[in-house]
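Look over this one:
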Amino acid sequence: MHLIDSHCHLDFEQFDLDRWQILKRCQQLGISNIVIPGVTAKRWHRLLELCDHNDMLHPALGLHPMFMLEHHADDLATLEHLLTQHSVVAIGEIGLDFYSKDHDKNAQIELLIKQLQLAQQADLPVILHVRKAHDQMIALLKQYPVKGGVVHAFSGSAQQAQNYIKQDMLFGIGGAYSYQRATRLHNLIKQLPLSSITLETDAPDMPLQGKQGQRNSPESIAVIANIVADLRQQKVNDIARITTENCKRIFNI
């Protein structure tokens, strides 16, 4: 059984002491590839260097909407340059986050549009972070169509999912679906076509039920595969095979 973690921040400092041991355990669990999205420009070189040292790691580069105060005017030019120098699988993690009361909606939209345009220019998919902004995101994807991608930690409606699918977007399914109280998500996962699903951990964040407050790990992807199989009443081998194929297709891995 081969698995892919389509969203893991393995470059974060929480993994500095045991990163390579974790990767060895991942390989033993059948986890063959891990996509590492970037969130701020200051982390990009560290992320790229990490991926250069291990063939199972694949970099994405982007400016995350929750780190607006850390972004600088020349970051987009740096991103455009790095895309010509490195093999990057996606532009991400980018998006819209209107959850916080003090968010700057216009600044987020402007930054997102510029990164969607870079994705168009580089012919790359995107990894999207979207909270309280799915309708706005869908409208922007129609205006600035890209080469597909993944909507990370998807928790929107079935109707919104159909609109994303029309833009060749996949849905990242992770730890939130492990919680017994998440009945709306459990119903959603049954409605999504398996051809539009990828598995993700968002490690070190989004721990599974029972592990709140602990560091999440890409090793959890094997548990998530079983959770999805149980919720959909399908064989875990089929979940693993098809989600892996989906991820390889969208990221050209």
